[in-house]
Amino acid sequence: MSLTKEKLLTLKPGNLLEDSIVNAYVEILKIRENNLWYPNHIKTDNPYSFHAVLKPTAKRFFFAFSWWMVIAAQFCYDLKIPPSEMTGAAKDDRDNFIKTYQKQFIGPNLQDCDFAFFPACHCNHWILFVADIKKAKVLLIDPLRNGDDYSGKLIYPTQYYLMEKFLPFMLHKLDDKQFPQRYMIIKEVVERPKQEGGVDCGVFVCKYMDAICNGISLKTAYWTPDKDVITFRYRIANELRNGEARLISEWGIRQKNLGL
Asked: Treating both helix axes as pointing N-terminal to C-terminal, what angle do 88-101 and 167-174 enclose, rounded to 10 degrees?
């Protein structure tokens, strides 16, 4: 995924991140996680047969680009109509989407993963959905908003529909025995590093994915919304230039001491 200088410059403090920046970061995270599962020195025509040998306790991740939401949204012209009731050309387009977008160029397919990341940009604001594929649960992580008066379903109705109804339908179509459920339970995350600046949502979404991949709970993850986020911007730029996402141990997301 090539990036122009102009797009990389959106990582400078005070700028909203371009979609291409977030998607490029998704790509290098995907490569990093795949390399952890399948080290380069192991040669095999079917590396997925080595799951238990290489990393038996690891989680497998599916990384969707932001356009997953954009393209899938065409199946949400009426949020009251279940995906299963589509007919004609809409049904054919839906089935083609499922066939195409359940795959990753790098890494396992959607139905073979433990968790799936779905970043989305709504009105210039980045949010993240994290789906627990096996348990049929989804976390909605909004870097900026939360509280008693917050409703992700009202603010992001299309994205919410896609996670609540379309994603489980997609999994059911791929393997109805493994995924009998027709709905996902969505929970809005409250305890997480919270955005304060008006333009840093994309950075937060990138680092949420980074932390989760490394087994760090967002409840205990910690970074300052000013100084650390500026550092993250330059680190992300460096990682994108090098084409490699570094591990947390080297790039440092701190964790709160909860006194446990």
From this structure: 80
